[in-house]
Amino acid sequence: MDLEGTPALHGCRMPAEWEPHSQTWMGWPERPDNWRDNAEHAQRVFAKVASAISKFEYVTVCASASQWANARSQLPQNVRVIEMSMNDSWFRDTGPTFVVRDSNACLGNNEWKVAAVDWNFNSWGGIEDGCYNDWSLDLLVARKILEIERIPRFPHSVILEGGSIHVDGEGTCLTTEECLLNKNRNPHLTKEQIEDQLKAYLGVKKIIWLPRGLYGDDDTNGHIDNMCCFVKPGVVLLSWTEDESDSQYERSVEAFSVLYNATDAKGRKLEIIKLHVPGPLYMTEEEAAGVVQDGEAKPRLPGTRLAASYVNFYIANKAIITPQFGDQKWDDEAVRVLSLAFPAHEVVRIEGAREIVLGGGNIHCITQQQPALL
Ligand code: KQY
User: Whose CA is nearest to atom 5 of ligand 1?
Assistant: First the structure.
């Protein structure tokens, strides 16, 4: 069912990721021009992520017709596997952005409490700049999920990926200018008009703009979900490095200064927790050689700096699903920092997350939470 008007007009807000979920949605990787060796390594890591989350909440994995049996065989029985076509498997970006209507909004007997925004999508920048040339199936992913769940939909023409926004559930949205103001998304909209859209569709009151995302995050033009996220209202985690010779350094310092001087929708100053990046990590010859370079998708070149960050974790019910890159020192440090930041959650390590980074994102980018009906 399609709804008229905007979520804010219906009294809705996008809940924070730590609010209770009814389930997590994921896709299943397969395209050989993005995932090396016919996606065999990526599939193993996606299966690990789904399996880890499924210990804390329901998980549905969507796989194409030709991959359904393979996905079913690699995933545990408590994970639901359904058939869905897609161009790639980044459900943070192609899935719905769920919104909730809290119980104090006036509801009739049969009225809905959860709805979702179905944003427009152009493969992270369109034909010139984007990651692949045909995204027609991705455009239907959010709608199909909402049909399955019988959840009402707010269709929207604005191009926006879920990885480009984070909310605190109390009126504040974090994003980056590098992505949301990029001319390859919504060139006809000014910053003020984009703010108005975020307010109307996420139910937020205040937007904190970081200038840039993570160094090397060129696929997404600097999504916020690799750079900075909320831990709870008033507290953020920021991708950090102490190495002044690393190109990441000036981006982190610049973001720190914006966050330090910011206040949120409730007028609070922010506490900033630094989360050191791994590496730097680079794509190897062997990894690049495993990707089919067919002209349909962005080429993958050896020596490319990988957009690897521990901020790209996922908050499941009672668990933090955390990427690990095989960089012992910073992997352990990330687990230490996240355990302190989320004392009521179990921090679960996902080894081999490098395979997701090779495709251009990480655990947060491949997951999408559906809020619980409370
Ligand atoms: O960062 C994300 N939310 C998704 C990354 C997609 C990269 C496509 N190659």
Answer: 361
